[in-house]
Each structure stands twice: as structure tokens, then as C-alpha cells.
């Protein structure tokens, strides 16, 4: 009985880590691309363009860290809801971008 409970907890933690790594990678890439686009649009100097890319990457990592810390600090039932809401938001945003 205890081994199934242990495996259930391990798989829950693994699912949380997988979701957080996926979220972090996507937000890092999208925010960096947003920073690159805004850098090309607004700045002439290569230094300020790189700074806007770094700023966008920082925003992406920071927002992913905030969401992941909420997921890990919440109870298991609440974290499943937070992950589902996060994925549905990301999916709706990516679908709107494709249209």
C-alpha cells in the first residue's frame, strides 16, 4: 500500500517538473523572440538590441519561475488545476497566434 502511495507521489512530482520545464522553455523562447522583434523595431545599436533580448528572456524566466513556485507550493489537487489552467492559457495564446 505504501509503495503505490510513494509511486503516486513520485509521478506527481515528476509531472510537476515536466510541466515546469516545458513552461520555462516555452516562455524563455517566446519572450526572447519578443525582445528580439522589439529590439529590431525600436533600437539601432546592437548593444541595445541584445539588451532587449536579455530583458525579454528575463521576463520569460521570471514569469515561469513564479508559476512553477505556485505549482510546487500548492496542494496536489490545486496544482493540477494550476497546471491545467496554465496549459490552456498557453494553448489559447498559441492558437490565436496561428490564426
UniProtKB/TrEMBL annotation:
UniProt entry keywords in alphabetical sequence: Membrane, Mitochondrion, Mitochondrion inner membrane, Transmembrane, Transmembrane helix
Record bears the keyword Transmembrane: yes
GO CC terms of this entry: MICOS complex
Subcellular location: Mitochondrion inner membrane
Pfam families for this protein: DUF543
Entry keyword annotation includes Transmembrane: yes
Protein family according to the UniProt entry: Belongs to the MICOS complex subunit Mic10 family.
Function of the protein: Component of the MICOS complex, a large protein complex of the mitochondrial inner membrane that plays crucial roles in the maintenance of crista junctions, inner membrane architecture, and formation of contact sites to the outer membrane.
Protein name stated in the entry: MICOS complex subunit Mic10
Lineage summary: Eukaryota, Viridiplantae, Streptophyta, Embryophyta, Tracheophyta
